[in-house]
Design a protein that fits this description.
four-stranded antiparallel beta sheet, globular, mainly beta, 1 helix, seven-stranded mixed beta sheet
Length: about 130
């Protein structure tokens, strides 16, 4: 069982920055792929970013809408994954969810951008970007 707790959301003006954190339980955190998704009112939950470690290499995946503005990272010693969000836009307003792919064996961006690939989810943190 993995428990995820997000923090760091809030209200920010367009062009500003926020850093979200997701603290995970579990001693094998470093083996899991981690992702961030978001859900705006009236819309489906969508992929934002993911990170995984395999064979000594770290792989990063980003949605086109956030590429170049958002950065996902992890600190295995702290069992924490981060989402640094810069140059925020009003359309980034959403509840942001952290997710853990504990049992997946995929190796493609398509796999890690799919909600169904993740086994555990956090409760979400609200990000609001004002214009």
């Amino acid at each position: 069982q993995v428990q995820l707790v997000e923090s760091g959301g809030g209200l920010v003006q367009a062009g500003g920055s926020l850093r979200l954190s997701c603290a995970a339980s579990g001693r094998t955190f470093s083996r899991y792929a981690m992702g961030w998704f978001r859900q705006a009112p009236g819309k489906e939950r969508e992929f934002v970013a993911a990170i995984r470690w395999s064979g000594g290499s770290t792989y990063y995946y980003y949605a086109n809408s956030v590429k170049g503005r958002f950065t996902i990272s992890r600190d295995n010693a702290k069992n924490t994954v981060y989402l640094q969000m810069n140059s925020l836009k009003p359309e980034d307003t959403a509840v942001y969810y952290c997710a853990c792919a504990a049992t997946g064996v995929g190796s493609s961006s398509t796999y890690y951008s799919s909600k169904g690939s993740y086994d555990y989810w956090g409760q979400g943190t609200q990000v609001t970007v004002s214009s």
